[in-house]
Amino acid sequence: MSNKYNVSSSFGNNREKEEPVQLVSSASHDHDSSFRRNGKSSFEKSTLEEKEKFLPPVTLDPGCDSVNLTPDPEVVKAHAEQEPLDRYRIVFIIMVIHGMGVLMPWNMFITAKSYFENYKLDTPISHNASYRLEFLFYLGIASQVSNVVISALNTFVQFGAQASTRRIAMAIFIIVLVFILTVVLAIVDSSQWPMEFFAVTMVSVVILNCCAGVYQNSVFGQAAILPMKYTNAIVLGNNLCGIFTSVINVISIAASPSPKTAAVYYFIVAIVILLVAFDAYFVLPLTKFYKHFQNKVKGAKAKSNMTCADYSEQFVKSCKMYWQVFKEIWVQALCVFFVFFVTLSIFPAIQSGVVQLEIVMAPDYFVTLFCFLNFNLFAFIGNLVSEFVKFPGPKYVWIPVLLRVLFIPFFILCNYNPAKRSLPVIISSDYAYIIGGSLMSFTSGYYSSLTMMYGPKLVDPQLAGRAGMLMAFCLVLGITLGVNFALAITKMITQV
To answer: Which segments does the entry list as coiled coil (predicted)?
Structure first.
């Protein structure tokens, strides 16, 4: 370029062939000077091609592609399978919340025994009616029979993982609606139609526990693919729910002189907890920790080719698969069944019917504190201890589980239903009753946690979800048969 400082050089590989630098005076052409005029220089006005003459070529170091290198597949696989952290224990907390939500219907109704028996059903029409005097038995049968039937269907009739998870959201939503109906029934004066109120209550209990059965079964199936402590988190939430409902019941009774107002506040708290569980359901799939284990199981299922479009064929295949799983975990399945069978044979029907002889306290507070709160508190402690102490192991856990059957005669010999019992009262001490209740509930929480944790870990990872759902079904079956056996115990005490 004439009349400019013309710097021309070559940045090629052969520097010995560089062209000489030519300098041209710009004194006579000030208007084209390379020095900046009006804020711009001639370099900025030059074309892109001219500027590129001044830029040296950029040489990159050889990468994997240029030298035909491929990443080590073992390193890639190890990186993909590396377990992410459960940051802030979010997944653990979600499982605890679901554990609370699962048993919220059951705990809210059994803890409100006084509200139903001494307020809603205590009318001139129904004062001596069997549905008032034996309300907890009717409640237990309506709750647990429906629960076990739905749990069986949810366990053996599978329509894919997405369907199973959607059931959780639908179940929680319906439970919330039924609790809203329960609040309305608490507000309405039903003194002129106690039988109809009882019937509506039992229907709502059936609906609640059908949904709770689906909810519980599906949540245990979700937790089974995670490490053992996440299954225990659900059991932990179960007993934390009992503590929570017992404390709320005491507060509502103490804070409100009106049973109607106390019941309204009491059931509204349940709705709030269930709405929190509903939100937690949508948070869980977003966590990296849960997605990591979910993807591992999905990969294993894809390789095993276990799915089938035909539902009837899938049902047969599912039953065979569950039989295969049961053969591997039958000891744990029977243990969790027997733990809850013994526990529900005693609590709440028998244990809440024991009348104090030494402790001076209002009966409502005595039952709430030393039956419901005591049971749930020590069961919760048992759950916590199982996080740190796991004894005995899966092979011998059945021994202490069987020994728990001794709690049944212990409570039979306490001061249960003194007005109608025909058997003599051998254990008349209130303190012996409280200590016995604490031991029974502690062992219930401890061994239920151990067996629920052991079961899914005895099978292959791709079968862990089925093992978890099968264990949950055995849990519900134990509760159902235990509740019915409690009725037989009552007849034996009062009619022998």
So the answer is: none
